[in-house]
## 1
Amino acid sequence: MKLLLEALRNVFRKPATIEYPRVATPIEPSSRGRHFADLRKCIGCSLCAIECPSKVITMKKLPDELKPPHNKRGLYPVINYLGCIFCYRCVSVCPVKAYITTDEYRLATDSVETSEQLSLATLKS
Ligand code: SF4
Ligand code: SF4
């Protein structure tokens, strides 16, 4: 009888779990998600790559036609999100505050957006 009552109660209870991904999970306001360099600001100094504790930032050469005048070295950071621990050290050390931060945590999607694509798109916007 006790079991039956418990079962009946659970039929009308709100589920304790979230049906992710059909229902979005709540995100803390300060949560650290996908981030990438805004190449309209980045000066290619490499400081973020040097300071990254996971060593997942590679400095890549910008195509000549996209090289902005303020980036004399013509380099920009590309992050391998697979190894990133989202500590945001790179964000805090950047001398020109070039990192764009988001709370996007869904990195395993079928529409792959790499940090390279996101950063290069900042020069086209
Ligand atoms: S968030 Fe941390 S681990 Fe990720 S790229 Fe930046 S410094 Fe490296
Ligand atoms: S620290 Fe900032 S300015 Fe320097 S390479 Fe990284 S994003 Fe660019």
## 2
Amino acid sequence: MTKLPAGVVFGAAYRDLVANCKSEKFALPAVNVVGTNSLNAVLEAAGKAQSDVIIQLSNGGARYFAGNGFPNPETAMVLGAVSAAKHTALLAEHYGICVVLHTDHANRKLLGWVDGLIAQSEAHVAACGQPLFSSHMLDLSEEPVGQNLATCRDYLTRMAKSDMSLEIELGVTGGEEDGVGSEHDDPDNPHLYTQPTDVLAAYDMLSGIGHFSVAASFGNVHGVYKPGNVRLRPEILQNSQALVQTTHSTAENPLDLVFHGGSGSDHADIEEAIRYGVFKMNIDTDTQFAFAHGVGAYVEKHPVAFQAQLDPSTGKPTKKLYDPRAWLREGEKGVVDRLQQAFEDLGSAGRSVAA
Ligand SMILES: [Zn+2]
């Protein structure tokens, strides 16, 4: 494909990026961030790997980004996401890679959050010609599919006017993500598996309106569980693609698919999912752990600095050791390292389309 300017991608550039991932058979990690430490670490990691990347915020992550003490949580959820988007827009190009900006699960109770974000993007389009986010997700997967899709159609109709894409969810991702999701963790639960006929219904309803992607459930679960507790069935993705392809005589893999709950997944399952049209794999649990592990190791190495401003055994100041830049940096380094593995697993390392 033709190269794109480094920085955040929207509209046609975003669609080209997705199409390139699918035709070249690799995927991009979508990493949840909660503040500038995690966000900068994702940019650094992507620049280091020369991979493009998807940065996303959950409702809780967005609220946290605005400050956990922000007076009004509803406002914080919107402004925190806007703050993260503007921070990324300012810095991303300097890391020499392309970045997709996205928000994670929003169920019906969180539609007000998405409404607020779309309104912010509409104002930004009017002022600067571009939205703030490349795409948003609606997760109405616990509702009847007709109701889910009708709401998705209304949102995509509005968002397409600002050249934004919509990620929808069909079938329930197991586990829970920031208060959205289910407790269906039993691998035999049929709700954990998307029905290809539902995916076809989504294609029928949405493909004429604008760009959309589908988080299809094939046994994937948020979080990391003991081996054996998760049974992935990537053939569900293949069957969904095949049904749309034959019904509408499209090219291979017409759907842009998203893999939720990517933390802790086997390499073979990831490769198979990519073969069936997955271009985005969410990763949160593993990068959270990587950040905590980095900080934890530092605290263990320098316990005195977290207890006293003068080392009792030497009398020397511990200031350099408790400076937040010292120990937060260890968390960032943990994320940067863990993401190198993600870029390798997904095949995106060295394949940035940034000019
Ligand atoms: Zn998810």
## 3
Amino acid sequence: MSKFSFEILGRDKETNARLGLIRTRRGDIETPYLVPVATLASVRALGSDDLASLGVQCTLANTYHLHLKPGDELIKRLGGLHRFMGFAGPLFTDSGGFQAFSLGFGREHNISKIGNIFPQELSRVGSSQEKKEGIQDEVDCRVENSEGSMCHCSEENEVLDSIDPGEIYKLNYRRDYGENSDDSRKRSGKVAKKGPKIVKKENLTRITDDGISFKSMADGAWHFLNAEKSMKIQSNLDSDIIMAFDECTSPLSDYEYTKKAMLRTHDWADQSIRYHDKNQAIYGIIQGGWFEDLRNISTEAIASQSFDGIAIGGSLGNSKQDMHQVLDWTLPKLDDRPRHLLGIGEIDDIFECVARGIDSFDCVSPTRIARRGSLFLSPESGGSLQNKFHINIKSARFKSDEMPLDPNCSCPTCRTYSRAYLRHLYVCGELSYFRLATLHNLHFMLRFMEDLRESIRAGTFLELKNKWLRTI
Ligand SMILES: [Zn+2]
């Protein structure tokens, strides 16, 4: 048996937020929790000793990428993923099904799984004053994120291209976006024609009911994954919580395609249940895109299976509001198994999704934006919804700033270094920047999740949410 259980320790009286404890064979995970992503068996720029000293409860690694490099069979021979990466706590692995999107339509359409990257916000944040304040850099980062960071475990572009921060500093990522699609898509079941201008890249996937063929970006060779093989790879990795094999669809996929992919995902869910290593806990993944009837069908199909937990995946529409809608369709129909939202992890999203009953998240964003110069700032230090709780360390205004990054943060970086020093490291492309920045952002998110759990325990969740998300 997998020695997996989930206990709900408390519920918020005013929302659907819940405090929980996931027990796995390698330790417990207090929820709500944001699982740091270790795509290639590494939270980039950090060692597993860093993770231990930060108090990271668990991480999430990537089945597809580890299958390719260094190979799951090799990792098995070396004693499994925990031993290989020197991490003792619980490990999640995803199934490889997300790469159906990130290496497929995600590349071809150059979008994230929330389609238009919130164009209303782009136009707002792109105002001249905010550009002066360096907030445009945040937008630029968002646009970069259209290649994956809103999505779970998607570091494909970075896996190939290690861009140093000095180089990023010189780049201009601005792109123009069209109008957002509206409710017509929902009504007609069709994708609205207007949308982001897209820079097409090669679609590296071929998908049939049998499985997914991936063209390796490294050498052009084709690799085939199906449910049975994904379960075998995840068994070789010996992770503790695995994901059923699925097909993650694009926000630009129409109703018919999304339905086809969803039905395929349900077949693969059956096969995943059958073939998975029974020592591992397994989460099923609800698909169905941004179509209410499909989400309902998928919720019923996945929840009726004997999965240990339920993940919500796939396209979450074109805006944060769409994402909330998907959760409102889905979560009330689920029982008390743990619920994981794949690929989401911004502060406001976490509040909104926890309020709706999500227990765990995974997202590359906190560590990825750190490497690109966006560092978290608490409300006490000036962080707000308007600046996304970030400062952009590349900004010239920090050139001689002797303050710590966030005076209210107790991480090793903030205890030791000034903003001026961090900016200097960033601008010069010093490698130490990556580690110091990642330490801060990860520490910040861990403390944030801790505060969030404490607020549910104390009955002050909405108070905390209002404190963070208040708009001035
Ligand atoms: Zn800090």
